[in-house]
Write a structure and sequence with these properties.
alpha/beta, NTP_transferase_dom, globular, Spore Coat Polysaccharide Biosynthesis Protein SpsA, Chain A
């Protein structure tokens, strides 16, 4: 079984720590390792370094090789430019299709936290064994919701189909991407909707068939590139052809068109958190509700339910009478926001483009 970890996002919701030149998945948000390094750690030793592939942008070539010296050189798949995850998955899965067309693969992401690591690996391996028996399927790995999040996608889950290794498999009945608060509250009450982690297990052959059927433009463009894979002219043709399709997400290109009979869902609690935004990082790290989460030189009085990260060793950050705040201090930016306002960060960073503040993005 192979694992593909995608690490190409820019992470604007984690600004000002996460920048274009050094996105959040390469920063040490938890302890002394980046979330990319943690993503590798939780796969080993069940997955050898030779079985792990990294997909990212060529701009991060140096940093991913430095952080992951154990991964073989040929297992780094670089996109020459940003084209959303639809073309990126087609490229890396297409490469694996040339090598291991019918071997199970797990699609994973570099900016998540998983606390139940042993159980997570058991789920991956069990799903991989199921795919060996039914190679023309996708098995989604979802999570029991802890709260009614409006920042996550949801999977509509049907009846229980069967069990393997004490892990249940359920009907797949569709997706709902980032519902409003009223809808999210209803989802939590019905127990028929789970958080969509973006994790799934399938085979390269099945994924490429889905691209050929539902996204022929991306498929044909990828095939133009892959005919040169392993040859001297590969990189030249990758740069020439990769950008010739418009950006499209994998959900839009493939998953929204997927026949429901071609997928199943695993629903478990693996202690998962999407730490793609500051308030999500706080929720992942807090040991009890309303706890403050701090890093660096910080002094607080009457502060509740806040995250304060200070990355300047020579500066003390002091907070007084604050509730539900996010404060992040770097050497060139100080961010102060209410937790509920964190989604606005992305738009603010986008507004900096073309201004004197663009250098800060």
């Amino acid at each position: 079984m192979k694992a593909i970890i995608f690490a190409g996002g820019t992470g604007t919701r984690m600004w000002p720590l996460s920048r274009k030149k050094s996105p959040k998945q390469f920063d040490k948000l938890i302890g002394d390792k980046s979330t990319l390094q943690l993503a590798i750690d939780r796969l080993t030793p069940d997955f050898s370094p030779e079985d792990i592939y990294i997909s990212t942008n060529i701009a991060y070539d140096k940093i991913v090789r430095e952080q992951l010296p154990q991964i073989p050189t040929d297992n780094f798949i670089f996109e020459p430019e940003k084209k959303d995850i639809g073309p990126a998955i087609a490229l890396v899965v297409g490469i694996l299709h040339k090598k291991f067309p019918h071997e199970p693969i797990a699609i994973l992401w570099s900016d998540h936290l998983v606390k139940q690591i042993a159980f997570f690996k058991k789920i991956l391996i069990t799903a991989g064994n199921e795919i060996k028996k039914s190679p023309n399927k996708i098995i989604f790995i979802s999570h029991k919701p802890r709260f009614a999040s409006v920042n996550l996608g949801y999977i509509h889950v049907g009846k229980r189909l069967h069990e393997s290794e004490r892990i249940s498999f359920y009907e797949f009945k569709g997706f709902k991407y980032r519902p409003d608060q009223t809808t999210a509250n209803k989802f939590i009450k019905t127990n028929n909707y789970t958080w969509n982690l973006g994790y799934f297990v399938t085979t390269p052959d099945f994924i490429m068939k889905l691209y050929q059927r539902f996204s022929p433009i991306v498929f044909n463009n990828t095939m133009k590139i892959l005919q040169y894979y392993g040859k001297i002219s590969y990189l030249t043709n990758l740069e020439k052809h990769y950008g010739q399709v418009e950006s499209i997400s994998f959900d839009n290109a493939i998953l929204e068109n997927l026949d429901k009979k071609d997928a199943q869902v695993i629903v478990e609690d693996i202690g998962w958190s999407d730490i793609g935004a500051w308030e999500a990082l706080k929720e992942a790290l807090e040991t009890f509700p309303y706890e403050n989460v701090i890093r660096g030189k910080v002094y607080l009085e009457h502060v509740r339910d806040s995250l304060i990260y200070n990355y300047e060793d020579k500066k003390l950050v002091v907070g007084i009478d604050l509730d539900e705040h996010i404060i992040v201090n770097t050497n060139d930016v100080l961010l102060i926001a209410k937790k509920e306002s964190v989604p606005k960060i992305k738009k603010i960073v986008e507004n900096f483009e073309g201004t004197e503040n663009e250098k800060l993005t």
